[in-house]
Amino acid sequence: MTEVVHTPDGQGQGQQAGSLPEDGSEQRVAPRFTLLIRTAKLICATGEYLCIVRDASSTGVSIRTFHPLPQGVQLTLELPNGDQHPIERVWEKEGAAGFRFPVPVDIDRLLHNKSRYPKRPVRLKLQLPALISCHGRTAGVVIHNISQQGAQIESPLYMAIDQKLRLEADNLPVIQARVRWRKGANYGLVFDDTFQFAELARLADQLQGNCNIESGTWIPDTFRR
After folding, report:
1. Cα Rg for the chain, rounded, in angstroms?
2. For position 116, what pLDDT does the model report?
3. What is the CATH number of domain 124-223?
4. CB atoms within 10 A of CB 92
5. CA 6, 11, 12, 16: dihedral to nearest 10 degrees?
6. Domain residue spans in the chain?
7. Given this model, what pLDDT does residue 112 score?
8. What's the pLDDT at 111?
């Protein structure tokens, strides 16, 4: 479970929620809570990006970032339980950013990550062209999403459960993986070596520029099963 620390001095004196004091930090009128462990992602028109929520209140949030964030776009914060919150940028500096919520959020739900579903790693949605190699065969595939531990791909090659393969794509290291599940032309892969969160966060920034294909548009129908 995520550890939470109540920060009594999080209430700003004479500051409105989301306003900027002279040091550039954000002080919020609502009580602020420090989240010691909370991965999340930012969603916008240019793609999805990993971040870590550092502290939050019902009116705003500050996050740790791993690269400069896209400018001039509407951002949405998505938590591991799938909850999405539109956010407005208040400040940004190297490695960190602060946002306000246009509408106050349920801070108890945000803090405790309440969900009906089992917790799972944050996944980045992509449409990334890649290559797989297995048993002397090579084929073009589409990576639909990726996490620290695995990925979902669409492949013209039929592969068995637990089949080992190599996955390659621009801006990704060569990945050794095996098939965990199969549904039609879609396959779930588990990586032999997992990514560190910060490593995948930085890669995500580079990957978004290569996501320029539609799902399945270059996979011949004759190869689908």
Report:
1. 20
2. 65
3. 2.40.10.220
4. 16
5. 120
6. 4-112, 124-223
7. 78
8. 81
CA distance 77 to 100: 11
Query: Distance between CA atoms of 125 and 187, rounded to whole angstroms?
Result: 15
Distance CA 50, CA 208 (A): 12
> CA nearest 209: which of 47, 26, 37?
47
Task: Judge residue 130's burial from the number of C-beta atoms within 10 Å of its C-beta, 0-12 exposed, 13-18 middle, 19 or more buried.
Answer: buried
| Tokens 């090659």, residue located | 157
pLDDT of 183 reads 97
Class assignment of domain 4-112?
mainly beta
Per DSSP, what are the bridge partners of residue 133? 138, 166
Other beta carbons less than 10 A from residue 191's beta carbon? 17
Contacts of 2 (CB under 8 A, 6+ apart): 35, 36, 37, 38, 111, 112, 113
Q: Which two tokens stand for residue 1?
A: 């479970």
Low-confidence ranges of the chain (pLDDT < 50): 1-24, 213, 215-225
CA neighbours closer than 13 Å in the CB half-sphere of residue 218? 13
Nearest to 53 by CA among 65, 43, 45: 65
Task: Name the β-bridge partners of 11.
Answer: 28
Rounded to two decimals, what is the model's pTM? 0.76
Residue 211 is predicted with a pLDDT of: 56
SS3 of residue 202 by DSSP: helix
Question: CA-CA distance, 124 to 26, in Å (whole number)?
Answer: 28
Q: Which element (helix H / strand E) includes 34?
A: strand 32-35
- The span from the CA of 108 to the CA of 216, in Å, is 41
Q: Tokens 């520029």 identify what position?
A: 209
Q: Do domains 4-112 and 124-223 have the same CATH topology?
A: yes
